[in-house]
Amino acid sequence: MRIGIVGGGAIGLLTAAYFCGDHDVTIYTRRDEQAEKLCTNGLTVICGNERTTHRVHAEPFVREIEEEMLFIAVKQYDLANILQTRIHMLQANAIMFLQNGMGHVSYLPHVPHHHIALAVVEHGALKIDDTTVSHTGVGQTKWSVWRGEKEAFSFLSSTNSRFPFQYVDDWEAMLLEKLMVNVAINPLTALLRVPNGMLVTHEPYRQAMKQLFQEVASVFQLEQRESIWKHIETICHQTAANRSSMLRDIESGRKTELDAILRYVIERANERCVPAPISTFLYALVKGKQLEGEKER
Amino acid sequence: MRIGIVGGGAIGLLTAAYFCGDHDVTIYTRRDEQAEKLCTNGLTVICGNERTTHRVHAEPFVREIEEEMLFIAVKQYDLANILQTRIHMLQANAIMFLQNGMGHVSYLPHVPHHHIALAVVEHGALKIDDTTVSHTGVGQTKWSVWRGEKEAFSFLSSTNSRFPFQYVDDWEAMLLEKLMVNVAINPLTALLRVPNGMLVTHEPYRQAMKQLFQEVASVFQLEQRESIWKHIETICHQTAANRSSMLRDIESGRKTELDAILRYVIERANERCVPAPISTFLYALVKGKQLEGEKER
């Protein structure tokens, strides 16, 4: 199958690495330089002590793409631009979105593809350099159909056991659960500069996370609140030593997914006239840290 | 006049330094070692390029004190113990409390002294070592009578021009204004690890401080809200390069005045059934940072 992957970040490279053995994969990058390096050096994935390099095709995303299947693996903050101005350049039968947050859902009615799926990635992945990704935690990718037919994505059933896909019926509950996880873990770890585990082992931080969780759960009138809270605690324990992507972005002075996560919550709260003081306060603090970091660079 | 000063921290040493020229001053310390050093080396105050050493008497606070006037210059968190168990050891005609926060006010009905005054110190002071204090910012000490007569404190009118006292009528408004300043500046600078000026020059932080201020102002049904907010902004500008006492305490792994400041707010909010989500959230985050620091030591 001819598969295109838009985005050369950690998730794009990881996805490419696990499909390029069985499929004809092209990675579409933002920078010429990364595409050239991928063509020359191949794509290396590190998993535990294993280090595997795959031949892969890559090119910068500058002209029209024609593929059978497309994975959109850019960050939420780069997606709006693609959906608004370059969606006609993405020719494919089926398309799958791999973003955090839910901001992209409102654009989907304007996406012309017959078969549209949404997915949330529950793998640990770290981009080491332009051609190397470390698969730091084997998890799964949950996915759901937003428009069209599930069968258009049937090739997902025969993936590598280290990169499984699991279908779920309710795409909204799926995205919301991931959003709750990101809301609870990312901004707090970025602000406090602590690894994920501290949010559950350090009691004051656990209380703060719970308070934030309750507020956001109210904004979304979340059902199964207790089980999602337990899920978040489990993730913190399982990834105790990890530094969240937002913490790493803040430390490196990079742009973060703060807007896709916390500003999205605040906007929904405003629409629904539900107060969200903690989300608003935390947003300002982390935004401030992000701007401090950008100024230093 | 025979003046006793209970507490050998920055404020106690500064007060002693400015009274010991004209009065018979004794500093009552917690540790034997500090009292011995003060008796041997004298008390040095640094102000700008000047460095002055005064002969001073000091002894550990272990037995009954008899003075004409007493300044209580211990931190709020040490005061409860003194007021509850050792108040009978403090013999004096008049007594003045120099604490941040308002937690001590509820104990005052049990304080036996005829003349009781409350004060808020608006000087910058930094304890360099057991016998040296740096007067980093010349301000004033506002004071007010809680019980008894203003005339019992008449010696305050003839103090050094670098250490002026200013009488105000409304002790509650005086303490509340200082509390608002401390609430707005201390926990945020401690959490964010930024100097005071960043809270007004860095727009997201200013927004967060404003949000916190509004919440706490509502808890206390604060009048003159706009003028107190301007006062806080002015202090941030005037002390832009300073690191707040709470930030320095956090960085050094010392106990902070967080409870005297922010837990006091939360308790009043609970009593009055007013929501205080931001204060509660911020309290947990700074408490967590404080405990992290203590664990590391």
UniProtKB/TrEMBL annotation, chains A, B:
<dbReference type="InterPro" id="IPR036291">
    <property type="entry name" value="NAD(P)-bd_dom_sf"/>
</dbReference>
<protein>
    <recommendedName>
        <fullName>2-dehydropantoate 2-reductase</fullName>
        <ecNumber>1.1.1.169</ecNumber>
    </recommendedName>
</protein>
<dbReference type="InterPro" id="IPR050838">
    <property type="entry name" value="Ketopantoate_reductase"/>
</dbReference>
<feature type="domain" description="Ketopantoate reductase C-terminal">
    <location>
        <begin position="170"/>
        <end position="290"/>
    </location>
</feature>
<dbReference type="InterPro" id="IPR008927">
    <property type="entry name" value="6-PGluconate_DH-like_C_sf"/>
</dbReference>
<comment type="pathway">
    <text>Cofactor biosynthesis; (R)-pantothenate biosynthesis; (R)-pantoate from 3-methyl-2-oxobutanoate: step 2/2.</text>
</comment>
<dbReference type="InterPro" id="IPR013752">
    <property type="entry name" value="KPA_reductase"/>
</dbReference>
<dbReference type="GO" id="GO:0008677">
    <property type="term" value="F:2-dehydropantoate 2-reductase activity"/>
</dbReference>
<dbReference type="InterPro" id="IPR013328">
    <property type="entry name" value="6PGD_dom2"/>
</dbReference>
<dbReference type="Pfam" id="PF08546">
    <property type="entry name" value="ApbA_C"/>
</dbReference>
<dbReference type="GO" id="GO:0005737">
    <property type="term" value="C:cytoplasm"/>
</dbReference>
<comment type="similarity">
    <text>Belongs to the ketopantoate reductase family.</text>
</comment>
<dbReference type="InterPro" id="IPR013332">
    <property type="entry name" value="KPR_N"/>
</dbReference>
<dbReference type="InterPro" id="IPR003710">
    <property type="entry name" value="ApbA"/>
</dbReference>
<dbReference type="GO" id="GO:0050661">
    <property type="term" value="F:NADP binding"/>
</dbReference>
<keyword id="KW-0521">NADP</keyword>
<dbReference type="Pfam" id="PF02558">
    <property type="entry name" value="ApbA"/>
</dbReference>
<keyword id="KW-0560">Oxidoreductase</keyword>
<feature type="domain" description="Ketopantoate reductase N-terminal">
    <location>
        <begin position="3"/>
        <end position="147"/>
    </location>
</feature>
<dbReference type="GO" id="GO:0015940">
    <property type="term" value="P:pantothenate biosynthetic process"/>
</dbReference>
<comment type="function">
    <text>Catalyzes the NADPH-dependent reduction of ketopantoate into pantoic acid.</text>
</comment>
<keyword id="KW-0566">Pantothenate biosynthesis</keyword>
